[in-house]
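Changelog note: in this version the structure field was regenerated for every chain. One regenerated record is shown below for reference.
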Amino acid sequence: MRVVFRLFYALLLLGVFTVGAWLAFQKSIVGRSVTVPDLTGKTVLEAIRTAHDLGLGVEEETRRARPDEKVQKDRILSQQPEGGSLAKPAQVVHVVVSLGAAQLKVPDLEGLPPRAAALKLSQQSLELGAVSWYRDGVQKVGIVSQDPEPEAIAARSSNVEVLTNRGAPEARYVMPDLVGKDAEQMRGRLEAAGFRVGSARFESYEGIAPNTILKQFPPPGYPIGSREVVSLTVSRAADLAPPAAR
């Protein structure tokens, strides 16, 4: 009986010791833990003050700093442990700071036509803005100036305005009356003068000799430049009559 009593007493002491050790462990781990504050969006100095009040430390990981379009420069972008998690007093919260929006350099657009400039800007996340132009037969054709200037720092999707030279002013002429004249002769004269003549349209017209100009565009008296296309409607030989039925 005495042996049973001693065994029961030993088991009781072991149980009390186990419960006490567990409670002490819970108190040291859980009872003394603090909730990590959310430090994102704060400066490092503000984060240090906030964390210090809770007995936590803050360490900036400068090598991991990176650009971000939403978080301002020198503001905390991320942290570890995350906000809302539990940590022991004196534990260090590691933070990563934003470098701000990515800084883009405006490319040099000199000499490019507007379409090529727009493509080059889009590759840098920039856009072509207002395009102003003038004509000068001496200066090089293409973009001659831009705003912002090359190598300037610009934000994403910013506009770059340009001034471009379209070359020598285009000469303008008065369209002559070609109706009723020989199409081949007129085509040769127009092309010799630097005009572009499109493929002729042929129509049958009774009483008109073949290869005679019936219509023209632009019409007579219309101002025309050498880069415009002259369209002609030309007569052709009358269609042969169908053979008579036998």
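Spot check on this record: The CA atoms of residues 33 and 196 lie 86 Å apart. Helices lie at 2-31, 44-53, 114-122, 183-192.
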